[in-house]
């Protein structure tokens, strides 16, 4: 019963003092219309005591809740600090799997610390608030940069491994693979400054995924053709598809290059026109 009452009080808004006084007099005025004067004074005193106790209890519960939130923030900061130290240890040991696992656990805690410390800004000292947020930003930046570097390293390792397999198992498509990788890099650089960059990057990524699906299938069949039906026909179809994809990328790159020459074409036409007009004037003279 007591817990239910405390939950009810905790859920009520904390009114300012003047509002409590206003509500008190409104209630007393309502009581005075039907309550005898003999009972009105004791009722007014009891109501005042009740209001004071409710307000005091609300203040106490709010203080307890604030204390719990601050303690929870401290506990989270301590846990995040230990995880940060553990993450650095894994990094020194080159244990990338555990580093990634701890970093992914740590980042949500960092976000919670920043949001909660902002909410509790009025209850903690400015120095503590600044120190917490500075440390949180520092740890978050380190973790994000390391995770991004891991993704880059993983892509590079996968690319090197794929090229090695191609050179050993399928040298006939090595030139196609190298051309596609080169064109893909050039295309991504070209569209990096486009207004619809995200849309173009998504389309290019989807196209490259199809290319990689065909490439992986080609390498699987080529590694062990006897384990697949119609291996020769499927290899030839896949090789032709890879070749067509390479040609499509060449065409895409040409279009992107041409789009960059619009100013060049306009200036060239204007200059040619000016030269023609100048020659015409010279002839007339």
TrEMBL record:
Domain of life per record: Bacteria
TM segment ranges: 7-28
The protein's name: 5-bromo-4-chloroindolyl phosphate hydrolysis protein
UniProt feature coiled coil, ranges: 235-262
Keyword Transmembrane: yes
Assigned keywords, A-Z: Coiled coil, Membrane, Transmembrane, Transmembrane helix
